[in-house]
């Protein structure tokens, strides 16, 4: 198969979809890999490393899209890329369709095969291609939250871990999944007093067992959230419903209950956000303030630590990319239910329930597209 790796062009997105090591593995199976010039530089990978691994370099993004059967990316295509996408072309990347009707409609119109990293799902309901970036984002949420608690950045002026004789900050983590667990560990490690909320009592029991003594667990419901936001300095939204829009757990009126300089970090913003007042921001302009509450809502947080993120992402995606390249997307998805669940939009049809529900679109049975003839079958 011919695989293309374009340079990411979303604002301050420094990651790349494939490392030179990943190129080497794909080449071992006879696949051709085209990488756009300078695609990996911001992640610490020079063009010479890709060439040494067997990649062929192309100067423009147009040439990469034009020649590839499968495009491997990190973030969803943006408007300037829409017209570059070919009918039946396989796109393997993060999409988060449920948070963008424009993107969904564009991919339907282009007739692409859109396999989303974030909905590839194992039988145990884990999300193997979301886990590495969730780990990065969860840890970064605390790092960024601690920074924006500083007074020059309009925060409360609180050191997360305090010092002897001064109480540490109170941190509330909404969601006990991968992001929430990593965020709680980081905040606790810095000495903060942490409360982690989830709707699953078994999950809370597990977290209670593994977390250090400065982490409390609490059932997530509106009553408890309203009580907690009054006394917390940093609130981290870490809620995920795979492939669907995140619910608003922190509502607009709750901001009035918070102290001036409270910091909100919404890691779920690329799925619509679990904090009602959040909207996507960029690393270039990461925060905004409403009711004296600082909102940090960068949609591609791991892009700020691109070397770590790129290596972690390739470690997770490469086994699936090899299956897609070796078998073609249809056979690979027939053979592997993990991959089948990653299909969201296929050749003008929505095949993932969460996306169809988000925009009131008709849902096509995924089996019908797996048995139909395709140019890239």
From TrEMBL:
Keywords for the protein's UniProt record, in alphabetical order: NAD, Nucleotide-binding, Oxidoreductase
One Gene Ontology cellular component: plasma membrane
Entry binding sites for substrate: 15, 75
EC number of this enzyme: 1.4.1.1
GO biological process, alphabetically ordered: L-alanine catabolic process
Catalytic activity: L-alanine + NAD(+) + H2O = pyruvate + NH4(+) + NADH + H(+)
UniProt keyword Transmembrane present: no
Keyword RNA-binding annotated: no
Alanine dehydrogenase/pyridine nucleotide transhydrogenase N-terminal domain boundaries: 4-137
EC main group: oxidoreductase
MF GO annotations: alanine dehydrogenase activity; nucleotide binding
Residues annotated to bind NAD(+): 134, 198, 203, 220, 239-240, 267-270, 298-301
Positions of the Alanine dehydrogenase/pyridine nucleotide transhydrogenase NAD(H)-binding domain: 149-297
Pfam families documented for this protein: AlaDh_PNT_C, AlaDh_PNT_N
InterPro entries: Ala_DH, Ala_DH/PNT_CS2, AlaDH/PNT_CS1, AlaDH/PNT_N, AlaDH/PNT_NAD(H)-bd, NAD(P)-bd_dom_sf
Domain of life: Bacteria
Catalytic residues in the record: 96 (proton donor/acceptor), 270 (proton donor/acceptor)
Similarity-based family: Belongs to the AlaDH/PNT family.
Name of the featured protein: Alanine dehydrogenase
